[in-house]
Amino acid sequence: MMAKSSTEIVLDIKPYDQTTNLGELAEKVFKTVCFEGLSWNSDYTISPIAFGLKKLVVKGTISGNLVNIDDLMDEINYMKGSDDSDIVHSVDLASFRRI
What we know:
Blueprint: E1 6-15, H1 22-32, E2 38-50, E3 53-63, H2 69-77, E4 88-98
């Protein structure tokens, strides 16, 4: 019997503008983006991009083949702010590693 494989992912989440609170965005991702087989690492990093804009870097682990990465990234990309405005400009898969 084969052991279930897991995949560690790292996502770069770029906001629409520099007024987006990336700490709040991280908490929203961790609380609202839920898929069977996905567990988020509660740590996140905020890294500079350019011209005062920063990106949010989040990590998670996927058990087996239960989560479609495109669906996961779409779920984050279509997040809305409290005033129903777009808050995420793009989501990039920075790392995908089988463990």
